[in-house]
# Entry
Amino acid sequence: MIDEDDKLTFFYSGNAKEEVFKLIEKALDEREHYLVEFYNEFLIDIYMLLDTRKSKHVAIDWDNTISADKDFFKTLIAKLQEAHFKPFVCTLRAPDKENIEEICKILEKTNIPIYLTDGKPKRKFMKSLGVKVHLWIDDFYPGICGDSCKILAKNNID
# Structure
């Protein structure tokens, strides 16, 4: 059981039948984090936004996301990998040695790719690399695609 102050509130407003959502929902229940399906920016700690359904890539932010509960996310990454999803870190951080080393040290056994966008919108950055993302897990949705884009409307964010 985790302390009440350490529980995170996750937002998801997509198709509950999605395989990735069922997997994440179970992991959230095990860790006793909260899940909400209504948009309230003052309540939500982490957003889960569906993007490209045909992809198996899951982009997970570092700052205030993985770093908010490292043990939970290491377990979630392993579960995603077991289910044949392709999790990776995607952060707005600058691509320097110090940033890479910090993330690698924490996630050393997960063996997942790390993308540092240097402040560029994550969705556009990943598309430039030819990676379409199934699900974004992030505390700051404007970092994914700015303040207005189709995936926000698709996920019921005004």
User: Anything to note?
Assistant: The helical segments are 19-31, 70-82, 97-106, 122-128, 142-145, 150-154.
